[in-house]
UniProtKB/TrEMBL annotation:
The lineage of its organism: Bacteria, Bacillati, Bacillota, Clostridia, Eubacteriales. The keyword Calcium does not apply. Gene3D superfamilies: 3.40.50.2020. InterPro entries: HGPRT (IPR050408), Hxn_phspho_trans (IPR005904), PRTase-like (IPR029057), PRTase_dom (IPR000836). Purine salvage pathway enzyme that catalyzes the transfer of the ribosyl-5-phosphate group from 5-phospho-alpha-D-ribose 1-diphosphate (PRPP) to the N9 position of the 6-oxopurines hypoxanthine and guanine to form the corresponding ribonucleotides IMP (inosine 5'-monophosphate) and GMP (guanosine 5'-monophosphate), with the release of PPi. Its cofactor is Mg(2+). It catalyses: IMP + diphosphate = hypoxanthine + 5-phospho-alpha-D-ribose 1-diphosphate; GMP + diphosphate = guanine + 5-phospho-alpha-D-ribose 1-diphosphate. It comes from Pseudoflavonifractor hominis. One of its GO terms (molecular function) is glycosyltransferase activity. Residues 15-160 form the Phosphoribosyltransferase domain. It comes from the Bacteria. This is Hypoxanthine phosphoribosyltransferase. Keywords: Cytoplasm, Glycosyltransferase, Magnesium, Metal-binding, Nucleotide-binding, Purine salvage, Transferase.
């Protein structure tokens, strides 16, 4: 059972849904009269993205990009691999990059630079979780769900070694699972 590997629940399903609704309402207000393109950074953000778009009432479009930098560990390898690029051009569009977590900043500093070079009309970052204590690369974030302590979290899309993404809540993984104390 996945549950046995969880030390404690950080955010319940209800807390996540309530915060997602608040972020969607903020996006609705900020992009009134526009049609934002939401870019989900796979794989981690798929659950957040699916909940977020269903709470946004503006017309919006979606696209997906897959990147990977963690492999099977709990720290970033520093190498960001583009596994799948966007399907559409973003030039002149109002882009919102949707992420599950901003940790070292490696993935997003790389990705935002790459997307900015394609000349969108605007680009903003929406991350469900922010772990600022671990930041090594500065990243500006406009929409952030929760600030979390320096613990490895899983669930609601977030994995450890590709597992736990299907937990409906976000929990702290027991360190023994990844060979910690
Ligand atoms: O700020 P950073 O230290 O770069 O960490 C954040 C990134 O790491 C995770 O992705 P991962 O590489 O594990 O791929 P995944 O989404 O497929 O799990 C997460 O989904 C973010 O994209
Ligand atoms: O705490 C985390 N959990 C899962 N994936 C991650 N990628 C960066 N930080 C994390
Ligand atoms: Mg991962």
């Amino acid at each position: 059972m996945l549950e046995q590997d969880i030390d404690r629940v950080l955010f319940t399903e209800e807390q996540l849904q309530a915060r997602v609704a608040e972020i969607a309402a903020q996006i609705d207000r900020d992009y009134a009269g526009k049609q934002p393109l939401l870019v989900s950074v796979l794989r981690g953000s798929f659950v957040f993205m699916a909940d977020l778009v269903r709470r946004i009432t503006l017309p919006c479009t979606v696209d997906f990009m897959a990147v990977s930098s963690y492999g099977s560990g709990t720290t970033s390898s520093g190498q960001v691999k583009i596994v799948k690029d966007l399907s559409e051009q973003i030039e002149g569009k109002d882009v919102i990059v949707v992420e599950d977590i901003l940790d070292s900043g490696n993935t997003l500093s790389y990705l935002l630079k790459l997307l900015e070079a394609r000349h969108p009309a605007s680009i903003r970052l929406c991350t469900l979780l922010d772990k600022p204590e671990r930041r090594t690369k500065p990243v500006a974030v406009q929409y952030s769900g929760f600030t979390i302590p320096d613990e490895f979290v899983v669930g609601y899309g977030l994995d450890y070694d590709e597992k736990y993404r299907n937990l409906p809540y976000i929990g702290i993984l027991k360190p023994r699972v990844y060979g910690g104390e």
